[in-house]
Amino acid sequence: MNNYLRNTALVLTAAAVLTGCSSAPAQPAETAAADAGVSGEFESTVKGRNADMTVKTTFENSVITKVEVTNHQETSGVADGALEGVPAAIVENNSIAVDSVSGATITSEAIKLAVSNAITEAGLNVEDYQKAPEKQETSAEAEKLTADVVVVGAGGAGVSAALTALQEGADVILLEKSAVPGGVSVIAGGPMGIDSRLQKEAGVAGTFTVEEVLAYWQSYNAWMDDGMLFYNIASQSGETIDWLGENGMPFVFMGTEQAAHADGFPTYHIYADQENKAQYYVDVVNNFEAQGGKVYYQTAAYELKAENDKITGVKARSADGKEYDIDADAVILCTGGFGANADMIEEQVGFPLETFTTGTQTGDGATMSQAIGAGKGKTIQQYHGVTSYSGIQTGQGKDEIAKAIYLASSLWVNRRASRFAPEDLNYDTA
Ligand SMILES: Cc1cc2nc3c(=O)[nH]c(=O)nc-3n(C[C@H](O)[C@H](O)[C@H](O)COP(=O)(O)OP(=O)(O)OC[C@H]3O[C@@H](n4cnc5c(N)ncnc54)[C@H](O)[C@@H]3O)c2cc1C
Predict the structure, then answer these.
(1) Spatial CA neighbour of 38 closest among 67, 64, 68
(2) Class for domain 3-129, per CATH?
(3) From 25, 69, 183, 193, which residue has the greatest number of CB atoms within 10 Å?
């Protein structure tokens, strides 16, 4: 009797082999005729990216006909591609050997594990559901595209650059490696700003200058940051926050400096709705598309085209293997950091670091630039320290601990009073 011919009696007596998760029949398997295969619903609870998630798998005659994520706390926007795409791909291929969605790999793998558990729970053999989906036939010839500007990466920097270029009258293509926009920018609380409309309404605008904020931050960062870059960003920060608000990404003004940093000037703005901030990125990109911009998701740029020391375009490849050869007058690299690239961390930092990314920040912009001889001057790196406060709540000194760690004059020691890392890693402001 092969696994597709198992009958219900076998299903009901099958022992579930589960580790670190739970799985149970959501609905008793049908008492179908012997040899008809397994039919029924099986639920499994596994660890997702943020918390446990529950997935219900439906079999009809041992074929997976439905996969539903019935309960989860994954980050809206970041995980949407996986929550929708992975169940659909599993059903389409009757296989758990489907691709994970880049940018949401932990969520993708969790869904696959839950379905694998359901297969076991149903008394079926997981190996029978490991067939790799047939890849879509891709033409050897790359599709040729042209644009005035190609923006690579749809995080905070990329969506802003793409929409700005479009509104300035350029033909713009936006490439995003992940299935959704937002990148690490979705994780952030919000930006600093000087003289935003919100600060004007709060009566704060004009009470401090860009130069004062710059002097404060440079001192805070022990003069390790790039003053010119900071000045350019800071002097346009207020109008940028206003402009983002008008284009689908509203903020609120906090009236303070970000608590985890130090007692600086009141510059801190946060996304208006912290629960749904990922949706703001979708809204800005929708806005971009509605105004004529073109977006290619799950499409990673991998090579800059250059002739006579001039960038002439970029090559990109979609997750299903389709090639794009794009000619452009300008390519704007907004691929974020390299926190998801362990080799690059070792090379740049000298030892491994635990990082906080969405999995797609692999330093591609730097790699592509360096491959054509660029980007070998001063590189800007931001090591944004993240602190774990075991058992300490706000109001019990949490912010003071964070400030002490972030301040460049601090010495970092472990419980044996030994230094464990160079403190100048704490290069908090680009
Ligand atoms: C926990 C945490 C909290 C933070 N809080 C704050 C805060 O409160 N305020 C603040 O100002 N900053 C904060 N930061 C820092 C801030 O989030 C980042 O500096 C900023 O979001 C970086 O934006 P970005 O657009 O450069 O990168 P990202 O937002 O990461 O965007 C890069 C995009 O490029 C895509 N990509 C990568 N490679 C390719 C490729 N080859 N082809 C196509 N696409 C590609 C990625 O998928 C991604 O979508 C925080 C960071 C962390 C980790």
Answers:
(1) 64
(2) alpha beta
(3) 183
